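Known limitations

Files may contain more than one protein. Parsers should not assume a single record per file. Below, a two-record file is shown to illustrate correct handling: read the sequence, read the token line, then continue until end of file.
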Amino acid sequence: MSTISAAMTHDHRRCDEIFAAAENEAANGDWEVAATQFGAFHAAMEHHFKMEEEVLFPAFEEATGMAMGPTEVMRGEHAQMRDLFQEMAESVKTRDQDRYLGLSDTLLVVMQQHNAKEEQMLYQMSDQVLGGQASELLDRMGAID
């Protein structure tokens, strides 16, 4: 059986790879491929956020009674990243390389800090308090479109 930490960290790495591919294409000025890669990255991130916001965070909050703790901080960071996704999508449409790459640098820093908090704290805590439900929760997260 996989742990919540292992599954969610693996999904972070999958998103990171797509992010890097989109950034490389934008840096090379291949906007058609960059647009496709950015669309795939944005979809992967929204899927990851939905798994957390619709399944993992509510289960964690119910098990711990902490509704305004680390999950609330993560939701706020998701909103911050969603704002950056919108700005990046606009820069892809206008093929503004400097803007895209600048936003990409900002997003990379935000994602690295966010992912570190989740991987080093929240997912570990989730494994501790939700370990007995891990298989069911992972199935529910996997069923999200």
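...continuing to the second record:
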Amino acid sequence: MMRCIAVDDEKLVLDLLVDNIRQVPYLTLVKTARNAMEAIEILQNESIDLVFLDIQMPRLTGLQFLKTLPDPPLVILVTAYEKYALEGFELNVVDYLLKPVSMERFLKACNRAHELFQLKKPKLLPIDPDVKITDFFVHVEYSLVKVEIEKVAWVEGLKDYVKIYLTTATKPIITRMTIKSLEEKLPEPAFIRIHKSYLVAVDKITAIKRDVVEIGTNEIPVSESYKENLRKILHIG
């Protein structure tokens, strides 16, 4: 699943863009932004894989915004102006869409982004598809500790540290790494992000409530921006 945002200062265009995004099964719309400053705030607080970005916006254009990002996600430019295409591709954007955008052309750009997204993801499976990675090691104080993936129930991110809660231990493993780095070690769709600070093992979920999932007696919060992701994974209507 690719987590994306849409950035455009024109409400009608933004609404059409949102409608298109929601028709693509592998996209999850996290939020929308009406300008670059709102987009910056989202990127600082959310894990985003793809940005649909307008160019002509007040204060900071889409291209200026893109140049400020030290490690930008994948970007598809959506604009009414053909003249920025060369500069856009020099910034390694995935595609350059001219408004109005047909669904066919939009889907073609999304498919290209999805292919690049899959290529960028760490290869969790070895060449032999019958052999699965079942564990990994993390640093704990001065040791490397093995974590068996099937025993991971959920993960809590705390800035530069994570707590890994296992089904076989009362206390979590605490190690220095970001939740995004750990997310890349865990296989999809067995593990899903339900909050900017929480990952859960899907098969360990015992109940789902309005804003939490339960794993046994533990309640794990679900943020609004990840609810759609949860619904798609669990096939909740």
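Parsers that stop after the first record will miss the second one. For reference, the second record is described as follows. The helical segments are 11-22, 36-45, 62-67, 85-90, 103-120, 179-185, 227-234.
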